[in-house]
## 1
Amino acid sequence: MLDFKERYLKNRDKEPLLILDLGSFDVNGSYRGFFDISPWLYRGVDMTEGENVDIVLNNPYDWKTIRSNSVDVLISGQAFEHIEFFWITMLEIERVLRPGGLCCIIAPSGGSEHRYPVDCWRFYSDGFAALGRFARLTVVEAFTQWEPDPRYADLSNSWRDSVLICRKENLHLLSAWKQKILRGILHKISVMQLKGA
């Protein structure tokens, strides 16, 4: 995540960016120290109250408390493996990002089961890229850390993290309207199927 900040946000340190951290509850560390710097506004987002959580979501698939097109950067590290229907969450990420906004999602491709409260998925770069395209975001990068990184002395290398970096394009009015309608339909159908299950 620090690499993402240094490569993609280095020249934006004077902009008042709104940065949301999805899955921010501090279980064993957080990204707040990387992003909670003036003039940026960092907000931790999670399903439960707790340390490093500023916004509590009532529903992981319907973020009514976060306005559309309001977020400059959305980050999420080590949360997507715990989201049962992550593709619906990805539609919400697309909705809240501003045109030109970036998201960086990190999730494991390996490692042991670690329920919190569930552990559902592992991700490869191709799957992450497909997820970005599904949400109609431009995939900037998608990769997996296959080789051990000597900077990590703990068990971090065992997760073989995959990274997805996407951008929401600044579309012409008609194209943006079509995309909004399509996202809304996909989201509504997906959420309705959950209720009927």
## 2
Amino acid sequence: MTDWVVDARSVTKVYTMGDVEVHALRGLSTTIAKGEVISIMGPSGSGKSTLMNILGCLDRPTGGEYYLDGESVAELTDDQLADIRNRKVGFVFQSFNLLPRATALANVELPLRYARNGKNRRKRARAALEAVGLGDRMTHRPNELSGGQQQRVAIARALVNDPAIVMADEPTGNLDTLSGDEIMELLLNLNKDRGTTLIIVTHDPEIAQQTQRVVYIRDGVVEETS
């Protein structure tokens, strides 16, 4: 049996806006194997952002089942959802989402402050920054770093808890072409060297072509996988 790290079964998500129900996901099912690199694509309003929020444990489905690294997620409380998110998921966002007044090292340490296994925070944060090539920038604040370097800090922060999956939402969207290429190379090398499972939400076909598989979402369901 394949060792799925993501196993979503007939997932629905309904948002209530006044008297109107918006069906963002309509019985979506998908699986992702450990160590796989996939991209999620779809037009605006297709449900890909909702899917990312559910796969990343930022939200829970209205119906269906979702198992992350073997743990059932669909009916967790808010506190339980936050716990599994901190243990199992690393996030990389288009806008970096770094604390502006904190050093690179302090930004990377942040997830460990809330973790059960938060021992040796400083040592682990240093190792994560060294892994992304920023061993000489640990005491720099975000405004002292280039966009590419800030995204490397964000990647180090995503990796520091050794998560089951890293979710990257348009990770090169705010970068120039050269920096974007370097970030994609870094992410793919982390997958190759560490076996990190990567889920990349993108609208860029050139980014999608670098992944092992593309999942296309339309109208809240998986339209096709290639």
## 3
Amino acid sequence: MVTVTREFAERIAAIAELLLTEEDDAGAPLGQLAELSLELIPGSAAAGVVAAGAHAWTYATSDASIADLHQMQLDSGAGPVPEALRFGEARRIDDTAEDDRWPAVCSAMAADGLRSCLILPLRTDREPGGALAIYGTEPGCFSGAGHDVALLFAAQGGLAMRNAALYRNCRRLVQNLHVALESRAVIEQAKGILVAEYGYSPDVAFKRLSVVSQNTNRKLKDIAADLVAGRIQRRQFSSDG
């Protein structure tokens, strides 16, 4: 029986912001997601987060044996993990000693002392962005309260993955805009130098920069930066040069 306290509800709700991080290691927050599932989902003894894509692979697991278990399934395409990713539906093994759908998976789980598992899609919008895989050491760990809590956890985990994707895309857009603005600024400075030096119009100054860029097979912004910094001879930009 799980007592749903205010603290418990807040911790579940906070999962949606878990992946919003500046860390260089993209797997670190997903590792947190896997570890947090062990803490909050009753009956869980091991966990992993798997990404969906052209080549699905394990993002993070609570221990190495789970990573091996997932890789075996992803390589063969058979097992509850690839099925959850493929169909966007939950898959559950209540007892490895009785389940006959995936004998290789059940055998590998039993060898690690695991008797049950629950694989839940982590949905981003309408598509599964990955899956949360939780494992228990007793039969039927996720048929009751553990199942209900896991559903809440997976719903928030999917939201976290969607938020993280939006966050990364926004950061990438802002970074690209900064680069574009910096490039434009240095090109405008370089044009101003040529306008003052040779009396060119701004359009002609830009064309002279473009000619040197093409002739040297270098980016125009790099040519402009060298001109502004005095690292390139100005006579190259003369219409007589």
